[in-house]
């Protein structure tokens, strides 16, 4: 606060708050040659000073106070929860004069009303000595700091830590998911002090905490705001403010406009060291073992794997939430993992027939048997099904022929390596190649209507040592 003393002036009046407080400072003025009669003729006048600059002189101190009170009343609804008051840099200095001659007093009053700023009582945060933001009071300041800490700790962790502070007690036993704060510090030097500020600059504790944690801040434009002044308040060039607010004409801002006045990143560095207990997985092993009873290429699950669990106690250090160190103090398994075991077949596929035949189609019924038909021998049987089901090798063997073969259409011949051969004709498609080992049941292709055929069917022949047999002796 500045009090301006004028030579020859007796007292300074300073107005603070809607309820006016009268402060007496300085010396009483006693005119050297004044008589008691002279004293009775003395009248006060008031010199108004704002920000150290002389504004005007008036005769009615109370009228000035009323004008400023009115100014506060008009502004108050916009800032309902703030304590508005006259700028502390405004002062009225009394002088006793014999003759009051103040010809343009109304003008002087109006000038004072226009020039004197209404401010909000506030509590300012300085970071490393630089005033950075304002909240409404110390309680709001404390809440802001608490919110900053809560960004990196739970309310429970914070409360327990604050209770432990200064006491030399053992840390409480942790349950999984819990943590003990070992230290929580803000690297920057923070200090708070009561002061006055432009009412529209006062932030809510949550907004202020977010600004400190992320640099994000917005400002709501109020009546009378000018872009240049705002840029200066937020410590940037007008060009920077313009760049931060594309699409907003800063020359034509209206009250209510939201301006982005963010900083590039966090304004504080929060360092937290915690001891924490967490549940972690113990991954299961995946094992494979040979199974000689399974064919090569086949596999079987022997045991379903399951992950285990453990409790891990660790000392973890973070800076603004980023982990910078992690040291495991203790691990305790609570559930052992179970291996995942798969059996892989090693058996070579059988290529020598067993002498027993299976039905060579996935589906179908016999539509023609072996025997004389239309004056010639029908050498096999016909099995039909309109869906064209899969055709299968009737016994183990090796593919002897596979492909188009005249009236047979697409056909496969399997040599069962024991004197038997089987033929599969009229297939729509063939899935095997010559030389391929085809254990009993191997899919050879699909039933079809290729070659000399009058509908989807399989023509199936069996021969022993080159002599065709009646297939119905082998399958049924
Ligand atoms: Zn046939």
Automatic annotation (TrEMBL):
What are the residue boundaries of the G5 domain, all occurrences included?
268-348
Superkingdom, natural source: Bacteria
Any one Pfam family here would be G5
Name the CDD domains on file.
Answer: LysM, M23_peptidase
Classification via Gene3D superfamilies: Glucose Permease (Domain IIA) (2.70.70.10), LysM domain (3.10.350.10), Resuscitation-promoting factor rpfb (2.20.230.10)
Q: Give every LysM domain span.
A: 217-261
Q: What is this protein called?
A: Peptidoglycan DD-metalloendopeptidase family protein
């Amino acid at each position: 606060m500045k009090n301006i003393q004028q030579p020859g002036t007796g007292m300074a009046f300073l107005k603070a708050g809607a309820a006016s407080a009268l402060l007496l400072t300085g010396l009483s003025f006693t005119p050297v040659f004044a008589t008691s009669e002279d004293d009775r003729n003395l009248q006060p006048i008031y010199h108004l000073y704002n920000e150290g600059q002389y504004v005007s002189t008036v005769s009615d101190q109370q009228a000035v106070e009323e004008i400023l009170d009115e100014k506060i009343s008009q502004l108050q609804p916009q800032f309902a929860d703030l304590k508005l008051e006259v700028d502390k840099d405004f002062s009225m200095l009394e002088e006793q004069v014999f003759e009051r001659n103040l010809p343009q007093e109304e003008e002087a009053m109006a000038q004072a009303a226009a020039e004197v700023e209404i401010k909000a009582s506030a509590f300012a945060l300085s970071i490393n000595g630089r005033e950075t933001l304002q909240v409404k009071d110390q309680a709001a300041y404390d809440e802001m700091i608490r919110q900053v800490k809560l960004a990196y700790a739970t309310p429970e962790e914070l409360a327990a830590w604050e209770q432990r502070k200064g006491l030399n007690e053992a840390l409480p036993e942790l349950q999984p998911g819990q943590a003990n704060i070992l230290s929580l510090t803000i690297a920057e030097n923070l200090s708070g002090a009561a002061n006055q500020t432009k009412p529209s600059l006062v932030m809510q504790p949550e907004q202020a905490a977010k600004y400190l944690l992320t640099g994000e801040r917005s400002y709501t434009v109020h009546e009378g705001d000018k872009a240049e002044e705002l840029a200066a308040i937020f410590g940037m060039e007008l060009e920077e403010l313009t760049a931060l607010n594309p699409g907003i004409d800063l020359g034509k801002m209206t009250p209510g406009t939201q301006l982005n006045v963010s900083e590039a990143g966090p304004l504080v560095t929060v360092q937290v060291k915690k001891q924490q207990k967490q549940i972690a997985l113990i991954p299961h092993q995946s094992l494979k073992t040979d199974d000689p009873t399974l064919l090569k290429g086949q596999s079987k699950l022997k045991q379903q794997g399951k992950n285990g669990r453990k409790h891990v106690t660790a000392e973890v250090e973070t800076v603004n939430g980023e982990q910078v160190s992690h040291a495991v103090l203790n691990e305790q398994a609570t559930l052992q993992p179970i291996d995942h075991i798969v059996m892989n077949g090693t058996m070579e596929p059988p290529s020598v027939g067993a002498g027993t035949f299976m039905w060579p189609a996935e589906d179908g019924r016999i539509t023609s048997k072996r025997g004389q038909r239309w004056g010639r021998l029908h050498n096999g049987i016909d099995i039909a099904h309109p869906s064209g089901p899969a055709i299968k090798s009737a016994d183990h063997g090796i593919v002897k022929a596979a492909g188009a073969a005249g009236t047979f259409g697409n056909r496969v011949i399997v040599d069962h390596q024991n004197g038997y051969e089987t033929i599969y004709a009229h297939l729509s498609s063939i899935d095997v190649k010559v030389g391929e080992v085809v254990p009993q049941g191997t899919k050879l292709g699909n039933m079809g209507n290729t070659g000399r055929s009058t509908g989807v069917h399989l023509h199936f022949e069996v021969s022993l040592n080159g002599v065709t047999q009646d297939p119905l002796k082998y399958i049924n």
